[in-house]
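Justification of resources, computational component.

The compute hours requested in this renewal are based largely on the per-chain cost of generating structure records like the one below. Each record pairs the submitted sequence with a full C-alpha coordinate output. That output is archived, and it is also reused by downstream analysis tasks.
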Amino acid sequence: MNHPKGTEHSKLLAAPCSLAVHAIQHEPEKQNAPCSDFDLEKANSLRRNENVINQGVCVGPFKITWLTEDFFLRICRYEIANAVSMIVPSLVSYILLEIYAADTNRFAKAICLAPVIHFPFSFCYHGYMALPNFKEDWALLYHRLDSAFIHAASSVYAYGISCSLGYGLLTAPANAVPICLLWRSTSRVPNTRMMQLSVTMYLIPYLWQGMYLSFILVAASFFVILKIWEKKYLGAIYHSGMHVMMGLPQALMVASALGLLPSI
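The structure output for this chain reads:
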Protein backbone atom coordinates (compact mmCIF):
# COMPACT_ATOMS: atom_id res chain seq x y z
CA MET A 1 0.00 0.00 0.00
CA ASN A 2 1.73 3.18 -1.19
CA HIS A 3 0.99 6.41 0.58
CA PRO A 4 -0.56 8.92 -1.84
CA LYS A 5 1.88 11.61 -0.80
CA GLY A 6 5.02 9.66 -1.59
CA THR A 7 7.65 7.52 0.05
CA GLU A 8 9.22 10.26 2.15
CA HIS A 9 5.88 11.24 3.65
CA SER A 10 5.13 7.59 4.41
CA LYS A 11 8.42 7.26 6.26
CA LEU A 12 7.63 10.42 8.22
CA LEU A 13 4.25 9.06 9.29
CA ALA A 14 5.72 5.69 10.17
CA ALA A 15 8.61 7.10 12.22
CA PRO A 16 6.78 7.38 15.58
CA CYS A 17 5.79 3.74 15.45
CA SER A 18 8.93 2.28 13.83
CA LEU A 19 10.17 0.67 17.05
CA ALA A 20 6.87 -1.07 17.66
CA VAL A 21 6.73 -2.30 14.06
CA HIS A 22 10.35 -3.44 14.25
CA ALA A 23 9.44 -5.66 17.21
CA ILE A 24 6.51 -7.11 15.27
CA GLN A 25 8.60 -7.70 12.15
CA HIS A 26 10.97 -10.00 14.00
CA GLU A 27 8.26 -12.12 15.59
CA PRO A 28 6.71 -14.15 12.72
CA GLU A 29 5.68 -16.87 15.14
CA LYS A 30 2.95 -14.52 16.38
CA GLN A 31 0.94 -14.89 13.17
CA ASN A 32 -1.56 -17.21 14.81
CA ALA A 33 -0.93 -16.24 18.41
CA PRO A 34 -3.65 -14.82 20.66
CA CYS A 35 -3.63 -11.04 21.07
CA SER A 36 -2.37 -9.79 24.40
CA ASP A 37 -3.05 -6.36 25.91
CA PHE A 38 0.56 -5.46 25.16
CA ASP A 39 0.01 -6.33 21.50
CA LEU A 40 -3.17 -4.29 21.52
CA GLU A 41 -1.30 -1.26 22.80
CA LYS A 42 1.15 -1.60 19.90
CA ALA A 43 -1.69 -1.98 17.42
CA ASN A 44 -3.42 1.11 18.77
CA SER A 45 -0.18 3.03 18.37
CA LEU A 46 0.22 1.84 14.79
CA ARG A 47 -3.42 2.51 13.97
CA ARG A 48 -3.04 6.15 14.95
CA ASN A 49 -0.03 6.62 12.66
CA GLU A 50 -1.10 4.70 9.57
CA ASN A 51 -4.30 3.10 8.30
CA VAL A 52 -3.83 -0.54 9.39
CA ILE A 53 -7.34 -1.81 8.79
CA ASN A 54 -6.43 -4.89 6.72
CA GLN A 55 -4.17 -7.89 7.24
CA GLY A 56 -0.83 -7.56 5.50
CA VAL A 57 -0.77 -3.78 5.76
CA CYS A 58 2.44 -1.94 4.93
CA VAL A 59 3.57 0.70 7.39
CA GLY A 60 6.49 2.47 5.78
CA PRO A 61 9.03 -0.23 4.86
CA PHE A 62 7.45 -2.81 7.18
CA LYS A 63 4.63 -5.27 6.60
CA ILE A 64 2.31 -6.63 9.29
CA THR A 65 0.64 -9.94 8.53
CA TRP A 66 -0.33 -11.35 11.93
CA LEU A 67 -3.08 -8.88 12.90
CA THR A 68 -6.36 -10.77 12.87
CA GLU A 69 -9.92 -9.62 12.35
CA ASP A 70 -10.61 -10.22 16.05
CA PHE A 71 -7.63 -8.05 16.88
CA PHE A 72 -9.08 -5.09 15.00
CA LEU A 73 -12.50 -5.67 16.53
CA ARG A 74 -10.86 -5.34 19.93
CA ILE A 75 -9.22 -2.09 18.84
CA CYS A 76 -12.62 -0.79 17.73
CA ARG A 77 -14.18 -1.74 21.07
CA TYR A 78 -11.46 0.13 22.96
CA GLU A 79 -11.98 3.21 20.77
CA ILE A 80 -15.71 3.07 21.54
CA ALA A 81 -14.79 2.89 25.24
CA ASN A 82 -12.54 5.92 24.74
CA ALA A 83 -15.46 7.82 23.22
CA VAL A 84 -18.09 6.87 25.81
CA SER A 85 -15.78 7.40 28.81
CA MET A 86 -15.41 11.08 27.90
CA ILE A 87 -18.88 11.66 29.39
CA VAL A 88 -17.57 11.09 32.93
CA PRO A 89 -16.29 14.65 33.72
CA SER A 90 -19.52 16.17 32.36
CA LEU A 91 -21.63 13.66 34.28
CA VAL A 92 -19.75 14.37 37.51
CA SER A 93 -20.36 18.08 37.01
CA TYR A 94 -24.08 17.58 36.43
CA ILE A 95 -24.46 15.43 39.55
CA LEU A 96 -22.68 17.97 41.76
CA LEU A 97 -24.74 20.85 40.41
CA GLU A 98 -27.93 18.91 41.05
CA ILE A 99 -26.93 17.98 44.60
CA TYR A 100 -25.76 21.48 45.53
CA ALA A 101 -28.22 23.46 43.40
CA ALA A 102 -28.79 25.97 46.21
CA ASP A 103 -25.07 26.85 46.29
CA THR A 104 -24.57 27.06 42.53
CA ASN A 105 -22.94 30.18 41.09
CA ARG A 106 -21.89 31.24 37.61
CA PHE A 107 -18.26 30.29 38.20
CA ALA A 108 -19.16 26.73 39.18
CA LYS A 109 -21.37 26.56 36.09
CA ALA A 110 -18.46 27.70 33.92
CA ILE A 111 -16.26 24.94 35.32
CA CYS A 112 -19.05 22.47 34.58
CA LEU A 113 -19.42 23.84 31.06
CA ALA A 114 -15.74 23.31 30.16
CA PRO A 115 -15.82 19.48 29.76
CA VAL A 116 -19.17 19.74 27.95
CA ILE A 117 -17.48 21.97 25.33
CA HIS A 118 -14.75 19.38 24.75
CA PHE A 119 -16.88 16.23 24.94
CA PRO A 120 -18.52 16.16 21.46
CA PHE A 121 -15.21 16.55 19.64
CA SER A 122 -13.43 13.88 21.66
CA PHE A 123 -16.44 11.59 21.24
CA CYS A 124 -16.46 12.12 17.46
CA TYR A 125 -12.71 11.50 17.18
CA HIS A 126 -12.67 8.24 19.10
CA GLY A 127 -15.95 7.15 17.56
CA TYR A 128 -14.58 7.76 14.08
CA MET A 129 -11.41 5.82 14.90
CA ALA A 130 -13.63 2.86 15.80
CA LEU A 131 -14.93 2.64 12.24
CA PRO A 132 -13.47 -0.25 10.20
CA ASN A 133 -12.57 1.92 7.19
CA PHE A 134 -11.71 5.34 8.52
CA LYS A 135 -9.97 7.89 6.30
CA GLU A 136 -6.69 9.40 7.43
CA ASP A 137 -7.64 12.95 6.45
CA TRP A 138 -10.86 12.83 8.47
CA ALA A 139 -9.08 11.18 11.40
CA LEU A 140 -6.56 14.03 11.34
CA LEU A 141 -9.34 16.63 11.32
CA TYR A 142 -11.20 15.02 14.23
CA HIS A 143 -8.02 14.68 16.28
CA ARG A 144 -7.18 18.33 15.67
CA LEU A 145 -10.65 19.34 16.83
CA ASP A 146 -10.35 17.08 19.88
CA SER A 147 -7.06 18.71 20.87
CA ALA A 148 -8.21 22.22 19.94
CA PHE A 149 -11.22 22.13 22.22
CA ILE A 150 -9.08 21.01 25.15
CA HIS A 151 -7.43 24.43 24.84
CA ALA A 152 -10.77 26.18 24.29
CA ALA A 153 -12.14 24.54 27.43
CA SER A 154 -9.01 25.64 29.32
CA SER A 155 -9.95 29.31 28.93
CA VAL A 156 -13.42 28.53 30.29
CA TYR A 157 -11.79 26.81 33.27
CA ALA A 158 -9.57 29.87 33.74
CA TYR A 159 -12.64 32.10 33.96
CA GLY A 160 -14.46 29.80 36.38
CA ILE A 161 -11.53 29.24 38.72
CA SER A 162 -10.27 32.83 38.73
CA CYS A 163 -13.79 34.29 39.04
CA SER A 164 -12.55 36.87 36.56
CA LEU A 165 -13.74 37.28 32.98
CA GLY A 166 -10.65 39.38 32.30
CA TYR A 167 -8.31 36.55 33.29
CA GLY A 168 -10.29 34.06 31.24
CA LEU A 169 -9.98 36.32 28.18
CA LEU A 170 -6.28 36.84 28.95
CA THR A 171 -5.63 33.10 28.59
CA ALA A 172 -7.50 32.94 25.27
CA PRO A 173 -4.58 34.10 23.06
CA ALA A 174 -2.21 31.71 24.84
CA ASN A 175 -4.62 28.86 24.10
CA ALA A 176 -5.14 30.06 20.52
CA VAL A 177 -1.45 29.58 19.70
CA PRO A 178 -1.37 25.76 20.13
CA ILE A 179 -4.72 25.54 18.32
CA CYS A 180 -3.18 27.28 15.30
CA LEU A 181 -0.11 25.05 15.51
CA LEU A 182 -2.35 21.97 15.30
CA TRP A 183 -3.39 23.01 11.80
CA ARG A 184 0.21 23.62 10.73
CA SER A 185 1.40 20.18 11.79
CA THR A 186 1.03 16.99 9.74
CA SER A 187 1.03 14.90 12.92
CA ARG A 188 -2.03 13.86 14.92
CA VAL A 189 0.00 13.73 18.12
CA PRO A 190 -1.07 16.68 20.33
CA ASN A 191 1.52 18.85 22.04
CA THR A 192 1.19 17.66 25.63
CA ARG A 193 3.52 20.39 26.90
CA MET A 194 1.19 23.06 25.55
CA MET A 195 -1.72 21.28 27.22
CA GLN A 196 0.20 21.23 30.49
CA LEU A 197 0.78 24.98 30.11
CA SER A 198 -2.96 25.51 29.58
CA VAL A 199 -3.75 23.54 32.73
CA THR A 200 -1.15 25.50 34.69
CA MET A 201 -2.68 28.80 33.56
CA TYR A 202 -6.11 27.91 34.88
CA LEU A 203 -4.82 26.49 38.16
CA ILE A 204 -2.65 29.51 39.06
CA PRO A 205 -5.63 31.60 40.28
CA TYR A 206 -6.02 29.19 43.20
CA LEU A 207 -2.70 30.50 44.52
CA TRP A 208 -3.49 34.21 44.41
CA GLN A 209 -6.88 33.49 45.97
CA GLY A 210 -5.16 31.69 48.84
CA MET A 211 -6.93 28.41 48.01
CA TYR A 212 -3.83 26.31 48.48
CA LEU A 213 -5.64 23.09 49.35
CA SER A 214 -7.65 23.28 46.13
CA PHE A 215 -4.48 23.89 44.14
CA ILE A 216 -2.63 20.98 45.74
CA LEU A 217 -5.50 18.52 45.36
CA VAL A 218 -6.30 19.39 41.75
CA ALA A 219 -2.67 19.66 40.63
CA ALA A 220 -1.76 16.38 42.35
CA SER A 221 -4.69 14.57 40.74
CA PHE A 222 -3.71 15.86 37.29
CA PHE A 223 -0.09 14.83 37.87
CA VAL A 224 -1.00 11.28 38.94
CA ILE A 225 -3.42 10.86 36.02
CA LEU A 226 -0.78 12.13 33.58
CA LYS A 227 1.79 9.63 34.85
CA ILE A 228 -0.68 6.73 34.73
CA TRP A 229 -1.54 7.73 31.16
CA GLU A 230 2.09 8.19 30.06
CA LYS A 231 3.28 4.90 31.55
CA LYS A 232 0.14 3.01 30.40
CA TYR A 233 -0.20 1.39 33.82
CA LEU A 234 -3.78 0.39 32.95
CA GLY A 235 -2.67 -1.59 29.91
CA ALA A 236 -4.84 -1.48 26.81
CA ILE A 237 -7.54 0.57 28.58
CA TYR A 238 -5.11 3.31 29.56
CA HIS A 239 -6.86 5.95 27.44
CA SER A 240 -10.45 5.32 28.51
CA GLY A 241 -9.16 4.89 32.06
CA MET A 242 -7.63 8.36 31.86
CA HIS A 243 -10.98 9.79 30.74
CA VAL A 244 -12.72 8.19 33.72
CA MET A 245 -10.08 9.41 36.17
CA MET A 246 -10.50 12.96 34.87
CA GLY A 247 -13.75 12.94 36.81
CA LEU A 248 -11.70 13.40 40.01
CA PRO A 249 -10.05 16.78 39.28
CA GLN A 250 -13.32 17.90 37.70
CA ALA A 251 -15.18 17.08 40.92
CA LEU A 252 -12.53 18.88 42.98
CA MET A 253 -12.70 22.03 40.85
CA VAL A 254 -16.50 22.14 40.99
CA ALA A 255 -16.45 21.46 44.75
CA SER A 256 -13.98 24.29 45.25
CA ALA A 257 -16.16 26.70 43.24
CA LEU A 258 -19.17 25.69 45.33
CA GLY A 259 -17.26 26.43 48.53
CA LEU A 260 -17.14 22.80 49.60
CA LEU A 261 -13.36 22.79 50.09
CA PRO A 262 -11.76 24.84 52.89
CA SER A 263 -9.87 27.95 51.76
CA ILE A 264 -6.49 27.04 53.18
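Residues 77-257 form one domain. The beta strands are 57-59, 62-64.
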